[in-house]
């Protein structure tokens, strides 16, 4: 086993991890550990844009942006965090511009901006152009730009290193990170990275669902590793279903399409969003649009032979405009569905897209041990984290913003912390749990296959924990997950080798997915109201008296919740600064 020592270890090389690394790398000895080659991270798949109230093309200000974020999140947003994000958005975009990001420009040469769902002028009066973009490849440009700047600053990358455990040590009664345990894909070797501070930036967990816009690798590793070391997870019941996935496939067609003027229609050709959100129509927040689409299908106004999707109509847009602003996603429609968006509407249906929940942090990106205490030296940023700037529903373009604002904050804070802190002693044989787990997996004679269990889990979550939920569907999900976990105990892998054993790692990732699916389902059972991305048919209204709080799920050997041994649920107050909850109309 190899042992390494760095001031700061960053886990994940997506937008959040690399934005942190640029800051940390200039201040302290920093290593970035990533299971993917950095530029393959999911941030590179982001399409539509990153918002900031630059007011380059029309009047706008960061306070309107804060309000939209809070209202978009159905008032579960911590408002101090939303203020920080909206205010720092402007510098976040300008930072990227200075690093060399080729944004689309206005004729005068300013960064161009376009419309996106839920972003409005003057508290909901009409849609506003707030999203900065580089065609429909904004994430790709961000990721490349950040990577180039990491290289420029000499950040050290450990590529294809899978972090499978977090080593924690108690010092004077306070638990602190001592380092991380990583598995090197190329050799099968275990590495121990000792660090004064650790930043988690491992992204989301979309792969608990079957129909998803997320990459194969988004298995919630950081969330699961933290949870297994006693760190709570916040608001896991809130998952965003993006309205416009390609029907039957889930591949994303960015909301930028609607930002540029595309319209959703049902089988009657009706622009149905006029009924659900009369003011901003197709540009309502995603939770509302996704639910409206699902409702059209339920009420028999779906399209196609099975009446199970609706149509995204771009045919009234000029082909030249489509080619300039939406080249990639229109190509997706041609490639994957054989549909020509110039002349035919595109079949779409909601697709699992974004985890609003995750590892709880404060606005300094410090990870919370509980409602009142942070874990000194541990930070999280990006989709793995829950600050909470997105509350119960994230607005489009607020994630690329979140990863830049809080990634930067995490990088600075982790580096500054490492300047005054000492190394914490690693627990004895910190790698033991990981080594034992991998050995058991690699040598098991089990007859169950990873792919089969994962498929059953994803289909179960699509059927029971999707846009519409009830107590019955959620409890059924829990029962079935318990059975899948039993099957998982008998899993056997085919590749017994040490080098490039992806089979082995998929087995580990599947375990993360099973654990997190359980957390999502239990948290969803306990939120007996409908808010943002969480819609309970048995409790269709928002209930501010009963549920205006965050959910905190802990792994706790002494507790039992809904028949799940070792799980405890608590609540955390929402931080309200200036916007009292109001009825949410668009
Ligand atoms: C198709 C698509 C389009 C999107 N479009 C937009 C958009 O237009 N605007 C917007 O605001 N948002 C968009 N989003 C959301 C946004 O892109 C993501 O939420 C955001 O990029 C996440 O960034 P991240 O840095 O947190 O994680 P990621 O970019 O997912 O990076 C995660 C990193 O963690 C590493 N990692 C994971 N597990 C481990 C492990 N065990 N050990 C070591 N490393 C690990 C990976 O290697 C990777 O480098 C989109 C998302 C998708 C899926």
UniProtKB/TrEMBL annotation:
It is an enzyme of class 1 (oxidoreductase). FAD binds at residues 12-17, 34-49, 221, 383, 399-400. It comes from the Bacteria. Residues 454-586 form the Fumarate reductase/succinate dehydrogenase flavoprotein-like C-terminal domain. Residues 110-125 have a biased composition (Basic and acidic residues). Gene3D superfamilies: FAD/NAD(P)-binding domain, Fumarate reductase/succinate dehydrogenase flavoprotein-like, C-terminal domain, succinate dehydrogenase protein domain, Succinate dehydrogenase/fumarate reductase flavoprotein, catalytic domain. Substrate binds at residues 242, 254, 353, 394. Residues 7-400 form the FAD-dependent oxidoreductase 2 FAD-binding domain. It comes from Brevibacterium aurantiacum. GO terms for molecular function: electron transfer activity; flavin adenine dinucleotide binding; steroid dehydrogenase activity, acting on the CH-CH group of donors; succinate dehydrogenase (quinone) activity. It catalyses: a quinone + succinate = fumarate + a quinol. NCBIfam families: sdhA_forward, sdhA_frdA_Gneg. One of its GO terms (cellular component) is plasma membrane. Belongs to the FAD-dependent oxidoreductase 2 family. FRD/SDH subfamily. PROSITE patterns: FRD_SDH_FAD_BINDING. This is Succinate dehydrogenase flavoprotein subunit. Residues 467-494 form a coiled coil. The active site is at 286 (proton acceptor). It is found in: Membrane. Flavinylated by SdhE, about 5% flavinylation occurs in the absence of SdhE. PANTHER family: SUCCINATE DEHYDROGENASE 2 FLAVOPROTEIN SUBUNIT (PTHR11632), SUCCINATE DEHYDROGENASE [UBIQUINONE] FLAVOPROTEIN SUBUNIT, MITOCHONDRIAL (PTHR11632:SF51). One of its GO terms (biological process) is electron transport chain. Pathway: Carbohydrate metabolism; tricarboxylic acid cycle; fumarate from succinate (bacterial route): step 1/1.
């Amino acid at each position: 086993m190899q042992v390494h020592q760095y001031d700061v270890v960053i886990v994940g090389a997506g937008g959040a991890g690399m934005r942190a690394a640029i800051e940390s790398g200039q201040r302290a000895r920093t290593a970035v550990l990533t299971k993917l080659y950095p530029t393959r991270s999911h941030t590179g798949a982001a399409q539509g844009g990153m918002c900031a109230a630059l007011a380059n093309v029309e009047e706008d200000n960061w306070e309107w942006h804060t309000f939209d974020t809070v209202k978009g999140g159905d008032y579960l947003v911590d408002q101090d965090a939303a203020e920080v994000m909206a205010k720092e958005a402007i510098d976040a975009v300008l930072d990227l511009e200075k690093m060399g990001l080729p944004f689309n420009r206005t004729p005068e040469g300013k960064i161009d901006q376009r419309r996106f769902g839920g972003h409005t002028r003057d508290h909901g009066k009409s849609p506003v152009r707030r999203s900065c973009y580089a065609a429909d490849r904004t994430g790709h440009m961000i990721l490349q730009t950040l990577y180039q700047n990491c290289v420029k600053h000499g950040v050290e990358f450990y590529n294809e290193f899978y972090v499978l455990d977090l080593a924690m040590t108690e010092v004077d009664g306070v638990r602190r990170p001592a380092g991380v345990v990583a598995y090197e894909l190329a050799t099968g070797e275990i590495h121990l990275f000792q660090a004064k501070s650790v930043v988690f930036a491992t992204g989301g967990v979309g792969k608990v669902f079957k129909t998803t816009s997320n990459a194969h690798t988004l298995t919630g590793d950081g969330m699961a590793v933290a949870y297994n070391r006693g760190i709570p997870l916040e608001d896991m019941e809130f998952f965003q279903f993006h309205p416009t996935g390609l029907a039957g496939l889930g591949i994303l067609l960015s909301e930028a399409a609607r930002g540029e003027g595309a319209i959703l229609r049902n089988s009657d050709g009706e622009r149905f969003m006029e009924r659900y959100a009369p003011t901003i129509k197709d540009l309502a927040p995603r939770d509302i649009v996704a639910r409206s689409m699902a409702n059209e299908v339920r009420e028999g106004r779906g399209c196609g032979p099975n009446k199970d999707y609706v149509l995204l109509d771009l045919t009234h847009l000029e082909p030249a405009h489509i080619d300039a602003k939406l080249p990639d996603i229109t190509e997706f429609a041609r490639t994957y569905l054989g549909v020509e968006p110039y002349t035919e509407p595109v079949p779409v249906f909601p697709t699992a897209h974004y985890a609003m929940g995750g590892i709880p942090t404060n606005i300094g990106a410090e990870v919370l041990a509980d409602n009142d205490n942070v874990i000194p030296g541990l930070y999280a940023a990006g989709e793995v984290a829950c600050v909470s700037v997105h509350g119960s529903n994230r607005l489009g373009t607020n994630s690329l913003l979140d990863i830049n604002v809080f990634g930067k904050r995490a990088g600075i804070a982790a580096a500054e912390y490492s300047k005054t802190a000492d190394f914490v002693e690693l627990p004895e044989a910190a790698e033991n749990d990981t080594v034992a787990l991998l050995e058991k997996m690699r040598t098991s004679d089990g007859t169950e296959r990873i792919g089969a269990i994962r498929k059953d889990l994803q289909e179960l979550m699509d059927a029971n924990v999707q846009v519409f939920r009830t107590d019955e569907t959620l409890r059924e999900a829990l029962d079935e997950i318990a059975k899948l976990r039993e099957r998982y105990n008998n899993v056997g892998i085919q590749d017994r080798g040490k080098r490039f054993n992806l089979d082995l790692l998929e087995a580990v990732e599947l375990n993360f997915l099973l654990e997190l699916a359980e957390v999502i389902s239990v948290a969803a059972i306990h939120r007996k109201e409908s808010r943002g991305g969480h819609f309970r048919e048995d409790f269709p209204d928002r209930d501010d008296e009963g549920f205006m709080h965050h959910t905190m799920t802990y792994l706790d050997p002494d507790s039992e919740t809904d028949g799940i041994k070792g799980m405890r649920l608590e609540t955390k107050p929402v931080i309200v600064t200036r916007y009292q909850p109001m009825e949410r109309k668009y």
